[in-house]
Amino acid sequence: MNRVVTGAHYGLRDWLIQRITAVVMVIYCFVLVGYLLLKPQLNYDYWTALYSSQVVRTFTLLFLISLFYHAWIGIRDIVMDYVKPAGVRLVIHVLVILALLVYMIWSVQILWGM
Amino acid sequence: MNKKRPKHLALHLIKLPLPGFVSILHRASGLALFLALPLLLWMLQYSLRSIETYTELMELLAQPLTKLLLLGLLWAFLHHFCAGLRYLAIDMHLVSNLAQARNSSWAVMFVSLALTVLLGVRLW
């Protein structure tokens, strides 16, 4: 008898996304820390000069979107493991998704509205 | 399929091996960082918006209580970062036996704590 192993089939994709977003964030962190080490006397002018560059803004938004996607997968896994009642789980999932979408809009406002 | 499986979930009786300890801290620190996201985004916003909000933020960050909170978040970030790098190394088959798993777990604990102390002293 043929047994078909089923599932929702998002496991491998999410596993991969978790790692790709992690690598993006690691690279961003090293670049940012490198810049901060070059400017030991950090002040407002240096800080805003850094974020006035379109390249830095774009890279920062890429970092933040990676962070939000990474956080979604992680939080969803935690909720799936510890929250049993389906209703409660659904409510938490919806709230987390909405929060992360708002953070994404907020991030664009922060970076391009300064 | 209906077999009764043994369950042992008395959390205070389970002694986690070190890699398991690093693993649960990876979860806990990730959750803490997620909960701190609005605070961190707000800080980024205030640091960039104007010289007035920047100064306001710097004054707030000079408070001992805020520093303590940030130090906690700094540790959560560094632990999550180091433990994450360890998982990437495991995925690339760079960690293949028990001794390496234990040693790399020690390294994660040590490096993240040492960096927290180092940066904490420098920022305080």
Task: Describe the protein.
Chain A is mainly alpha-helical. Chain A is 82% helix and 0% strand. The longest helix of chain A has 29 residues, at 54-82. The model of chain A has no long low-confidence stretch (mean pLDDT 92). Chain B is mainly alpha-helical. Helix content of chain B is 78%, strand content 0%. Chain B has four helices and no strands. The radius of gyration of chain B is 19 Å and the shape is elongated. Classes of the chains: A mainly alpha (114), B mainly alpha (124). At the A-B interface, helix 1, helix 2, helix 3 and helix 4 of A face helix 1, helix 2 and helix 3 of B.
Name a few traits of the molecule.
heterodimer; A: 114 residues; mainly alpha; 3 helical TM bundles of succinate and fumarate reductases; 0% strand; elongated; B: 124 residues; 4 helices
How many individual helices of chain B? Answer: 4
Largest sheet of chain A: none
Query: How much of the sequence of chain A is in beta strands?
Result: under 5%
Radius of gyration of chain A, CA atoms, in whole angstroms: 19 Å
SSE string of chain B: HHHH
Supply the CATH superfamily name of chain A. Answer: Fumarate reductase/succinate dehydrogenase, transmembrane subunit
Here the CATH topology of chain A equals 3 helical TM bundles of succinate and fumarate reductases
Class derived from helix and strand content of chain B:
mainly alpha
